[in-house]
Every structure is written in structure tokens, then in C-alpha cells.
Amino acid sequence: MNKFYAPSGFLFLFFILAAFNGQATAVSSAGKRIDVGIAVAKKEQTITFKAIPNQVYGTKLTISATASSGLPVTFKVISGPVSIEGNVLRVTGTGEVSIAAVQAGNDVYNPCMVERKFKALRKKIKVAVVPVTKTYGDKDPEFTVTVTPALVEGDAFTGALERAPGEHVGRYLISAGTLDIKDCYDVDCQTDYLEILKKTIEVKANPLSKAFGTADPALTYTFSPALVGTDAFEGQLSRTPGELRGLYPILQNTLALSSNYTLVFNAAMFEVIKPIQPLAMLKANNIITPNGDGKNDFLVFDDIENYPANELKIFDHTSRVIYVKKSYDNSFDGKLSGERLTEGSYYYIMDFGPGKLKLKGFFNVIHDRR
User: pTM for the complete prediction?
Assistant: First the structure.
């Protein structure tokens, strides 16, 4: 039985029939049933939430906590560069961080909150310049870096790498230059080099000739690819000495380029040739002894190869034409259809074309009588 005081100050007697969650049903001494409120103390609860060690920028961490009441626990950011979605914590910067595990309570349990603090630290990365090469005279290639471990998604470098000035063959340091990243990283930058390599130039000597007894022409050459800018060759070619008829190698001699080039030289031949005889001075042998001993076996005109547009006609003692050949090449051997000509004198006419001199003469065919 509980006592309740009426507003008029009179005392009534009530009997509590039932009570739940701070509400009760009572019966007065007069037998009347009423609902009344009663003060019921809520229970305390605790939250188990482990300490969080220091975290690195960009880390994603699954966190968990439990309440002794069995009620669900949520998380919130009190301060610092982090974000929380559900139970996933993401470090978005650097500095001091404070978060809390919260249970809001209900009709039976009081609210409860546990705070945890930790530091968000810079992410350590190694930035390595990628070494590159180029050929002398070419444009610089793009300068790049490798990053280990990778940047946090969405982050990027600003600025650019720089290299030491210079365009001659050699190595040039590539440094960080103006390359920069947000202040959430500890950067270890490793430099490297741009290497400028020699440009290869191929030089080909031009084959030349001269007539015996005349002065040498200027020795010339071609080359590829083109030289860079105003660069030029120094020195000159030469040839192996000699003035007799024959071939003489054309040599690189002092021809050279600067140390920015590799010169590949291709030699050629310089030929000293017998002078071309004037038509009036051409001669032929006047005896043919077709015995195969290598002497006077053929009718030979000196330097006939210099006059290919010719025609030879041979006549017997009756003025009958017995042999005709255009572009005669010193091949007449004193035979017709495989049969030797009769010994005796024969007449020839060497025609060099309209308006030009015609050579005329005699030769004798003599057989070996041994």
C-alpha cells in the first residue's frame, strides 16, 4: 500500500496493482482505480571501445564498439581530419583526432559515450625520377616519376621536374624542380639523369675519276641526316697517292665533326683512266695471227670502248663485204663461220656515225706454218 496526497491536503490510501516503465495503476481506499506516474531510476550502461593507434593519411579503418546494454552503438567525429561512414573511418588529413562511440540510451538505460583520441600522420612516399635519354639535337622527352606507395585517390602533384641546362652530349641532373604535393605527405625524392647521346652521321665519299696526267678534281661527299643548327664539318678527304692508271681509295683523312657526333665514313674509289684518244689518233693492229697464242689473235682498235656507237666493215681483195658488226668490241678473230680467212690483205672501214671521221686501213691475215 502506498500513500498519495490529494491537492486538498487530505490523505487517501491507494493500493498499487501494477507498474511498468514509470507508470502504475492504483486503487484508492474508496475503491476507485487510477493511473499514476512513479519515479523509476534508469540503469547505467558501459561501452567497450578499444583505443585507436595513430593512423596514416589516407587510411581506411573499420572500427567497432559494443554497449553492455546490447543496444546499437554509433560513431561520430568530435574533431580532426577524419570522416566516418557507418563504422568505416577514413583519415582525410593530418593532426589531432577525436572520435566517440555513442549509445543514445532508452527508457531503461541512460546514454553513454566513450571518446578516443589519436594522431593522423603524414603518409611517407618515395618519388623516383625516371632516367631518360635523347639524341643530340632532339627535343627533351617528358620527365616522369614513379611513386611508392601510390598517392591517395584524388591527390596529384603540381608543378614540374627540372633539369640542369645544356644541350651537348653528356648527363644532366633531373631534380624535383617545382614538383609539389599537399602537406599530407613526407616525400623522399630520388633524382636521376637525362643523358644526351651522340648523333650518328653517315658520310659517303663520291666515286670520282680523272684522265691520266690531269689534275685531281675536288673530293666530295654526301651525308645524312642533317647536322644540328649551324654545326659544320671540319677537315677534308684525301685519296691514296698514285698517278698511274688504276683505282685509289678515297680516305676520310681529317674530315671530322664535333664530339656531339659519331661519324660513320663510307669510302669510295678514285680512278685514274687512260685519256680518250681523238678519233684521228685511233689505231688498229695491222696483222692477225689467229693461232690462239694470245698475240695478235684479234683485230684490236685502241680505246674503241669509248666509242660504242660504231660500225666495222671488212672487205676482201675483191671489195666484197665479208664482215659487218655494229658496236664493234675487238672481237674479230680472222674467222668466218668458224673457218679461218685465207691469208692475205683485207680492207676495213670503221664508221663512228654521221658527220664523224671514218677510219680506213688494211690488215694482213697470217697463219702459223709450223
Answer: 0.63
